[in-house]
Amino acid sequence: MKKAVFSILIMILTVCISAVCLAGCGQSVPLPDKVTLPEELSKGGYKLVWNDEFDGDSIDYTKWRVGYQGGARRAGYYVDTPETVFVKDGALTIRTQYMENGIYGAGWYTSWLDSAVSDTVGNSIVHSDDYTGFAGKYGYYEVRCITPPSIGIWSAFWMMPDGDAVGMSSSDIIGTGKDGLEVDVMESPYMYMDGGNYNVHVVHGEGYSATRSDRSKTYEVPGMYSQYHTYGVLWTETEYVFYIDGRETWRTSYSPDGETLGVSQVEEYLLLTVEIGGYQADDGTLRPGVTLEDGKEVPYWCGNPDDNDKTKVYDFIVDYVRVYQADQA
Asked: Looking at residue 31, what DSSP letter applies?
């Protein structure tokens, strides 16, 4: 009886946490009906300036850094192996799977791609002497993708300041976008909520506290785990305008202090990533499904990766990444 009561309490607590999280990310709403993106790009004179259609038979290492120095991040191992990250049938696949005999031992394995131009940012690995990467300032940035149907494991398409920009560091120029911001165009962490097909757009500056972030409502994207959808952001000198399937979903001129221009004013690079919910303990042990609060382990907010079927693979499939800029940009 005590065990049954305890199980019920845990279920109630999980539901409450889920409701608070979803509410905190904005009320869930359906996508708008009207497609406005083509008109906006045409009106602004935007033209394709950089892209990867993933039409070959391998990753273009002149465009992307792949993997992660040291392997571990959060509660997963990030590698560049044919089983984990590959191009096939006109699409990039970042595969997440549990491996008993991976190169770092047992655990969840996935990968990480970014296009950083400067070698002063990030921990990704350059695999080609001809690597150039890509970083841009202003324009329209879009991914077409299918997200992995997994709990505690989520994919993302985002942007970070390149070079010496310090938009997420303790030496940030507070209240401005002069040194860059993190822009999360697509994130898919809501599978734990009854398989929720939700996406949220977020802009981060000066860390990840609620007072230093601005986020959209949570949008329902039917079939995001099984069908292609597009996610993009139109970044100008004065605002960000976000789109899903060509429908405007959110716009913001993020500013932490409400007075200073908060839109990033530096070049930013692109990232295609999968996160494994959890943390790395001081002894190097990876701890999926939990995080630390006041020195104690508590359940990870979006679920435990170990609750997934470890015999299956979970794929982040990317059809293309495209960047458009106006002639005057």
From this structure: P
**Which of 156, 189, 177 is closest to 235 using CA atoms?**
177
- pLDDT digits 0-9 by tens, 204-229: 876 555 557 788 999 999 999 999 99
Inter-residue contact 18 to 218 (CB < 8 Å): no
- DSSP letters, 85-144, are EEEETTEEEEEEEEEEEETTEEEEEE-EEE--SSTTS-S-----TT----EESSEEEEEE
Sign of CA dihedral 194, 199, 203, 205: positive
Query: Is the Cβ–Cβ distance between 214 and 256 less than 8 Å?
Result: no
Question: CA-based diameter of the chain, in Å?
Answer: 70
pLDDT in tens, 50-91: 999 999 999 999 999 999 999 999 999 999 999 999 999 999
- Domains of the chain (ranges; CATH) run 29-326 (2.60.120.200)
